[in-house]
C-alpha cells in the first residue's frame, strides 16, 4: 500500500523545526511501524537525503526507547503497545500519517523525533530505589510477601519508562511514571522503610523538572504500553499525603 | 603463552573462591576515593558493577549508548534467573548447578569460574529481592520457582515473563542511587570508539557523544567492559537492533585476546522470520517449553490447520528423540532438532522454516487461566506480532541467533590479557562453555557485577593507589581520539551507493548460512572469501548521509558494521579451527550416527583465545587447556 | 509541609478538599430548593428564612465563599502551570480515549462561574442587600421574607432565565461527573475496586444534583409559562 507521511523534522535542539511530507510506496501490512520508517530511511539515503531520526532499540516493546506521537496518539492506534509493536495493518492504503515527537517541557527535542527523557532518570535518582548496598541483603525468603502484593507491585514495576504517559497527558504530567515506582516499592516491605522520603522527593523532582500536575483524565493509563493503572496514582497520592502530614524525618 | 594464565587459585573447588577472597589484596577506603573506574555498559552486569563499585567508594564513570541506563538489552530477558537455593527441596545444590552448567556447556567451560558463579547465585536473588524486585511469590509469601531447559530441578526465579526487565531495573535503581550520591557520573548516549592504553595498562576510553558528535576522552585507573554480546552479527537476532560487539572488538584490537568467538547460542523458540523488512526476531521465552509441546506433522508438506491434525499424525520430535528431557532439552539440542526437521521438509508455515509449539494439552489440563498466569504477557506479545492466539492455535517458532558464549578472554579475576581491562557478563567468554543453559545469563551477569568484579578488581587496583589519574591530554589519548575521528570521517567520505543496513543484512546472511546453527569446512571457507569481499565493498561503496558533528544514526551503524565485518572473520576462523562439534558449535563433519554432536576431547578440550596481529595479518591462536578435576567428562546426553 | 502548598499533589489536594466541600453544599442547596416544588411556597419560605437567620450560617457563608475562591484560584493556577508544561503543542489534537469533561474541567468551571455570577445577582444579592416583600402565614403570626415569590417570579416571567439555569445545570453535570470521583482519587481514597464504584456514584450524584437544579426551572416553565 501507499502511505503519505507528515513528519516533524528538526536538525538539533536549538533549530526551528517543521513538518516535512514524504510518500512511501510498497508498504506491506505485516511491516511494523518502525520497519516502515526504516524503509523510508533506506529510500531517503539512497536518494541522497537525510533520513528521519527516531529512537528505537529492542523492537519488542520492553526497552522503552521508541515513542512516537502518531496521528494524535502516543504509540499510535492500538492499546497496550509500544510504537515498535504497532503494525501497518492498523492503516489503510492511501492513509496520511502525521508523526510528531513527544511534546513536553520536560522532554526537549534533540533531533527530529528524538526527545531527551533524561528527566526520568533524574526523578529515579531522587528516590526510585531501596537503599541497600551490595551484600547487605538477607535471605530472599526472610521477608514473606503475599502473592497479591507481589503481583500488584509487579504490575506497577512493568513500567518501561517510555514517556507515553507524559506525551498523552494534556498537562504533560509524569505522575503515572512516579506513581508506578512509588507504589511498587510502597507495596513491598523492603521499600516501606523509605516510602515517605521517596514519595516526597520524587514528586518534588517531577515538579522541579517542569512536568504538570495530574488532573485525573486517565489519558496516561489509556496510552501506557504496559497498561499501568491510575489506581497507582491514588496510591501515590495517599503515600504523598501521609508523608506530608506525618512528622518530619 | 605466558599471557594466558587463568590464575585459578589452588585448593579444593568448593573453597577456591572463599580462600581467594580472604587472601587477595585490598584497597583501603581512603584510597578507594582516589581511584577512578570506567564501566562501559549498563546492563545486568554493568549497572550492578558500577553501583557496587561506587558503594565501595571508588569514583565510577558509567557509559551507555542508549538514552538511559535502563534500556540495556538485559531488559528483554524473559524467563528467569537461576539460583541454587534448593527452596523446592528437589535435591538442588551449588554443586548441581555447577555440574548442570558444565555439562550444559558441553565441557568447554572453566570449572573454577563456573563453580564460583553457582556459589554466588543465591546472594544475587537476595540482593534483587532486597532492592524491591517483585519476583513471583507463592500464596504463602515465599519465592516461587519454575523449571528451565537442560536441568531436572526447579531453580529458576522469575517475574512473569519480564524477569530481565525487573532485575535490570533493580540494578538500574542501585545505579541511580549512586548517581544521586555523586559517586557515579553517568554518560548516556555515548558510543565507545576505542580503548586507551598507557604503558601497557588500560587507562581510558574514547567515546563519541551521540548527540553532538563530539569525540571525548575519559581516563581512569581501570576499565570494565560490560558491553554484552555480538549476536546482532547475524543481522536478524533476538537482540536489540543497536546491540553490538564494537567495544569488545576495539579491546581485541588493542591486545585483549578473544575467547571462543564462534560459540554462539541459537535460541530455539523465536518467532520465525515473517518478511524481508524485519530487522530483528522476537524471542518467546524458553519457559514456554515447560508447558508447550513441540511438534511437526509426520507427513511432509502437510498444510492442514494444525488443530485438525490428530495426535497420531503429529511428530513430537523432541519427546521422541530425548525421552528423559523431552521438550526441556538444552537450547542447542532443541534448535538443531528443529532445524533437522525443517531441512528434511517437515517444517510448517509459509516458509517451511517453523515448527509448532502447542499449548493445547496444557490449556486442557490446567485451564486457560492458569496458562495465562504463567505466560500471559508472552502470549499477548505473540499475538501482537503474528495476529494468532496461542490459546487456540499452536505458536510457530524457529531458532534465532541469541547469545554469544564467546567473548573477551578473562582470567579468574575477570581481567583480560590487557592489565586493567576487565570484561564482565556476556562480554566475556567465561562461564557457559560451548552452550549456555537457560536463565543463567542474568545470573552470570549479575554475579560478575555484584559479587565477583568488585572483589577481584581490588586485587589489581591495590597496586595502583599511587598512580595518578592519567591526563586526557596524554599523547596516547590524543592519538586514539585522532584515529577515531579519521575513521568516522572515512565513513562519510566514501560516498558510495549502498546503505550501512544493506551491508549488515548481507553479512548476516553469510553468517547465518555458513557460521550459524551448523557449520562445515567448505561453507566456512566460502564464508571467509565472502566476508573479505563484502568488507572491500563496504569500504568502497558505503553511503553515509549527514555529518560527523551531529546526531547521525547512520554513522553509528557504519562504525558497528565495520567492526562486525572484522569480527565475523574471526568467528569463522575459530569455527574452522575447531573441527569437533560441541554445544552450540556443530561441525557437520563431527557427528554421531544418530546426528548428535560429537566432541573430540583429546584434541579440543581448550579455550581458543585469539590474539590480534594487525589488520592484514592472521590472528594467532592461544590455547587454554581445560582441566576437569571435579567432574567426569562424559558424552552429553539428554536422552 | 511548606513544600506541600506548592507541590503538584498539594495543590490538587486543595482542589479536591474545596471541591468536596462545594459538592456537599450543592446537596444542601438542592434539598432546600426542592421545597420550591411543594405547596404554595410556605415550606420553602420557612426553610429559606431559617437558613438566613441561622447564626451558624453567618459562619458558613464566608467559609463557603472562601471555598469557592480557593477552588477557582487553585484551578486557575494549576491550569496555567499545566499549560506551561507543554510549551509546544501537538499539530494533531490528542485522540486518546479520555472523557471530554475530564480534559475540559477549567472551561466547564469557567462557564459555571459565569452562571454563578448571574445566579448570585438574581437571588443572593437581592435577598441579602435588596428589600424583599414580607408574607405572613398562620393568620399573621409568622412574618417571613417572601423568597418564594422572588424565585418563582423569575422562573415564571422570563423563560430565558429557565434556559440559562438549565444550561448551567448541564455544565454543572459535566463538571461533577469528573469532579466527584476525581476528588476522591486525589486524596488517595481510591483503588482498583473503588474506582469503578466511585465513577458510578459520580454519575448518580451528578444526575441527582444537576437534574434537580434543572428540574426546578423546568417545573416552573412547564407549569406557568407554557
What does this structure look like?
The complex is a heterotrimer of chains A (249), B (639) and C (226). By secondary structure, chain A is an alpha+beta fold. Chain A is 36% helix and 11% strand. In chain A, a hairpin with a 2-residue loop joins strand 3 (69-70) and strand 4. In chain A, helix 2 runs antiparallel to helix 7, helix 5 packs across helix 9 and helix 7 packs across helix 9 (231-245). The model of chain A has no long low-confidence stretch (mean pLDDT 96). The relative contact order of chain B is 0.16. Chain B contains 16 helices and 19 strands. In chain B, a hairpin with a 2-residue loop joins strand 6 (190-198) and strand 7. Chain B has 639 residues and is an alpha+beta fold. Chain B folds into three domains: 13-263 and 405-461, FAD/NAD(P)-binding domain, CATH 3.50.50.60; 268-402, Succinate dehydrogenase/fumarate reductase flavoprotein, catalytic domain (Flavocytochrome C3, Chain A, domain 1), CATH 3.90.700.10; 475-606, Up-down Bundle (Methane Monooxygenase Hydroxylase, Chain G, domain 1), CATH 1.20.58. Chain B has a five-stranded parallel beta sheet with strand order 5-2-1-9-17, with helices on both faces. In chain B, strands 11-15-14-12-13 form a five-stranded antiparallel beta sheet. Chain B has a four-stranded antiparallel beta sheet with strand order 16-10-18-19. With 226 residues, chain C is mainly α. Chain C has one domain (2-86, 99-225): Fumarate reductase/succinate dehydrogenase, transmembrane subunit (3 helical TM bundles of succinate and fumarate reductases, Up-down Bundle). Chain C is 74% helix and 4% strand. Chain C contains eight helices and two strands. Chain C is elongated, with a radius of gyration of 20 Å. The mean pLDDT of chain C is 92. The chains are: A alpha+beta (249), B alpha+beta (639), C mainly alpha (226). Chains in contact: A-B, A-C. The interface between A and B is large, with 77 and 81 residues.
